[in-house]
Amino acid sequence: MRVLAIVAFAIAVGATHAAPVNAQRGGAQGPPPTPRAQAPVDLTGDWVSLVTEDWRWRMMTPPKGDVSSIPVTAEARKVAEAWDPAKDVAAGDQCKSYSAPWIMRLPGRIRISWENDATLKVETEAGTQTRLFRFGNQPAAAGPATYLGNSVARWEAVGGRRGQGPRGGSLSVMTTGMKAGYLRKNGVPFSEKATVEEHYNATSEPNGDRWLILTTVVRDPVYLNAPWVTSTHFKKVPDGQSWTPTPCEAS
Known about the structure:
The chain is of the alpha+beta class. It has one domain. The chain is 19% helix and 31% strand. The chain is built from five helices and eleven strands; from the N terminus they run ααβαααββββββββββ. It has helices at residues 2-26, 35-38, 55-58, 74-81, 85-90, and strands spanning 45-50, 109-116, 119-124, 130-135, 150-158, 168-176, 181-182, 189-190, 195-204, 210-219, 228-237. The strands form two sheets. It has a nine-stranded mixed β-barrel with strand order 1-2-3-4-5-6-9-10-11. It has a two-stranded antiparallel ribbon with strand order 7-8.
């Protein structure tokens, strides 16, 4: 009888110690990490655009009708030829070219920060605009369509060794639901059916410089014959250095 009692006691103790282990393995888990916690790369801070290509279209307003390098339709050419910045000013539409397809191509600085744990905020000096990149299944912004549209973001992680997590990655953003605007300052149009696909990649150089490389793909079944692809480069600068927001200008 004494042996049986000892065996029963041992079984009871073993079950007691096993219970927490089983609970940890198969029980309720904590909340998943937020997009901010999952970030495989830090994009926050101030970045200045370096205009290393397309200077004549980015640093000044091109002549009316200049649609060079954009795969526009015949209808888009007609709209571009009819561009009248005075009408835009009269209608309060000075920000038509400070839109999601073009805002990142304008010279100046951008500032990236976290609005909350699931939303990246991108502020621009040019036009004093604010873009919000929402991760996950957050609802689109309420209200009428804007030139910046609704942007949904996701991380593209580059895998590392097993158990060590990602060793890098990039940010992908898809923007839809935009109000019709301009692909350039000179009135080259995009329609409300346009979409903007963006890929943000950050690099670090041996001398300590950090670069942000943005690849943008604009698609529009109304005004483009093919996807319009551009590449834009930014260099990181000390936060707040010469930050000078400016209002939208129609021309």
